[in-house]
Amino acid sequence: MSRYSLLICRSQTEAIGLRRHLGQMGVPGEVTRPPRHARTESCGWAVRVAAGQAEDALRRLRQLGISPCRVLPDEGAGA
After folding, report:
1. Whole-structure pTM value
2. 4-72 topology per CATH
3. 7-11, 19-23, 35-39, 74-78 — most confident range
């Protein structure tokens, strides 16, 4: 099981903004590039968050009208 989740964003700017919103909610995140298979032409950046915080973070982001392209487990960061 992965220890992290990737919140896939459409751009680096969107990922930075998403990380800022998460930080204001007390959820630490790191802007990163997702694995090649998870990218599309318009989805090349992600925010990595702890897997245990991902669902709560998504729920709170949706309340603000913000949602990433998709959410994936970060297989490269698992233990």
Report:
1. 0.82
2. Alpha-Beta Plaits (3.30.70)
3. 19-23
